[in-house]
Task: structure prediction
Amino acid sequence: MGVEICVEGLTKSFGHQVIWQDVSLTLPAGEVSVMLGPSGTGKSVFLKTLVGLLKPDRGSVKIAGRDITRLREHDLYEVRKLFGVLFQDGALFGSMNLYDNIAFPLREHTRKSESEIKRIVLEKMDMVGLIGAEGKLPGEISGGMRKRAGLARALVLDPEIILFDEPDSGLDPVRVAYLNQLIVDLNAQIDATFLIVTHDIASARQVPDNIGLLFRRELVMFGPREELLASDEPVVRQFLNGRMQGPIGMAEEKDAAQVEQELAQIDEGGPADALTPRLLPGAGIARPPRWEVIARREAERHGTGVTSA
Amino acid sequence: MRISPTGALRQSGNLFAMALDVVRSLPRRPFQAREFIQQAWFVASVTILPTALVSIPFGAVIALQIGSLTRQLGAQSFSGAASVLAVLREASPIVTALLIAGAGGTAICADLGARKIRDEIDAMQVLGIDPIHRLVVPRVLASMVVAVLLNGLVSVVGVAGGYFFNVVLQHGTPGAYLASFTTLAQLSDLWAAEIKALVFGAIAAIVASYKGLTAQGGPKGVGDAVNQSVVITFMLLFVTNFVMTAVYFQVVPQRG
Result:
């Protein structure tokens, strides 16, 4: 099912420093969205604001019709049960082993028997490929495993919304590819609303339905993947292509004259790259209607190579 | 760090707000019994030995001071009464306060601070669990219970140490020491000391939890938080001690 998240006029600042202002977007129910942005543009702050860990200065975040920026603490905890969040380093509880970590939300929130908890935990651990590591402590395993364990813990309460804070940071390219496949498979299986915060362009090109880009304290653009990948907006083009030429500089921003000169150089360089094929759920995963449509469209666009399972 | 005139006010306001949250979460079910027992055991294990080791010389110093003072005044027969009074009324709550803040509070603050900077606290909130109810309340209760028990321990060890130094080293008369035991001290002194210890335990744990849960800026932030929590706790404890002592003398009639 998934739940729609409707963000309107969201503004956040720390002291006098504005992080971003007037961010308005709607994350459609059941779809995968990616929020991109150069380092330090407040992507993680945005994510924490969505779950109500940080209070925005202005604006609203409506989830299932309730504005979480105005909820009382008690109601906020109720709404948060809709969420699963994967934090950057997994945010596992250091004193518990992986099994207890993943069982934690079940033990706290449900009255399930230990045998039922065991079944669910092992099922989720199998989903993220962690079978056999139940007894390990978070300090004893690699960053990639911590991330997957964090994901398993985020999944046990069957969330309607899953937020990923830089799922690809600190992982090697192969593990990133596996994780992306896992995200797509999960979306096909549980149909929740996904938001991935990242600055990995390759993932952003392959995985989502929608892309948003935060830059210069604003949401530059938010829309369907195809639209952004084909966009002429200089910031979007620079970021999605990972180029030096464009408005985004090493420190912060560049002066306008230099940007124009650089953009002129690119335009001489010929047309933009072709649309990247989209990542589809794996062969063993039953595809819901939404993914059938996407698979058919991808097959038409890219001809052979992308076949329906 | 930028210094703003309202910063200190905001900090103390937030600390007080958290103390109120803790009080409000106290009756909430389910009570975290497991966490409470673990924490009580943990706080006890880091404080018992240092407390005992500190209270022996503390009792000895008091015995020495009072021993020579009573000899100068020609009131040797009251040396037992005076040292019991000193240990029971002031020494034991103060030693308890120092140890519960210095050993128990720092451990709580470091633990929660490390969890905070690893995003564990955020993760817990996102999983729909209130860290005040789940983590802070059991720690505050544990620290209160352990403080009360420690106060008893300090009193016993301190009085025993005082006896040893007065009788064995200063050649006081054991009979006089024991006979004068209750001439000045009374049972309400013990109760007052225990209540003090209870309050000190609560303050130490609340300040430590507050500082731990608001730690930021990586591992250095945790170190800073621990440092600040000890300083703030000590200041609060000594002020509270003064106020409670003043109130005690007004409320409870004294002997003699």
Observations:
- The radius of gyration of chain B is 21 Å.
- Chain B touches chain A through 16 residues (CB under 8 Å).
- Chain B has one domain: 48-251.
- Residues 22 and 246 of chain B are 27 Å apart (CA to CA).
